[in-house]
Design goal:
The chain is α+β, with helices and mostly antiparallel strands and 257 residues long.
Amino acid sequence: MEPIVSGTTTERIIRTSLVFLVLAGFALYYFRDGYYGYPNANLREFLASLGIADHPAPPIDPTLTMQRAGELAGELRGRPFAQVQKSLGPPGLAHENQRCYFGPASRLCLTLTGDLVTEAAVAQPTHSEADLRAQKGVGWLLALIATAFGVQLVRVLATRVSLTDAGLRIRGHSLIPFEALTGIRADRYMKSGWLELDFVREGQPASVRLDNYVIREFRPIIEKICEHRGFTNPLPPRPQEPAGENPNIAGLDERRH
């Protein structure tokens, strides 16, 4: 007998790939907003409020939260700015007599008189820290689901079913010898596109499901099994074939999921 080796169907690959790509795409979209888009939009908003919208974007300090900015504002008033720089580092922006530090969703601007910090103002932009956390959270959730579908996609691509003189081998299952096959049950085939192949293993009855959505060479494999074991072929005839037997299902197409 000429061996039949089958992967999975194109439809199954396309469907699984599309779901994976859509989920991964949305995860990247939310990550972009949470980690880059919203912080950069906040930064442009801060610069516009200072009247310098065209100024090159200053660096963002990811540790400068609204809570920390508020605490620093109370601590830094009355201190020499040279001392402030030792603890906070250089400001992200030096504009006139202001020295500003920027967080992803916060701004701390120090007003200097000479070298002395006389005012410290904290501002929150349109996109708050809660907004950033929400975007990141949704991104990670979608990334987790996308990863699961990525694993499923690998499994789909690895699908292998082969029929040789030795019998039927399904990836992940032991070989089922021809002589162990006892029958085919196809009562769910027209509705669901799958059938049950019964066999005996170590003296015990067992069965395995064969699905025309999963196995690309589904029909040739079933036909060859029926021919080799003398089973009645439960599949509807091919379009070019006469109805012959199976009058109740003659002319009907095989169901595809």
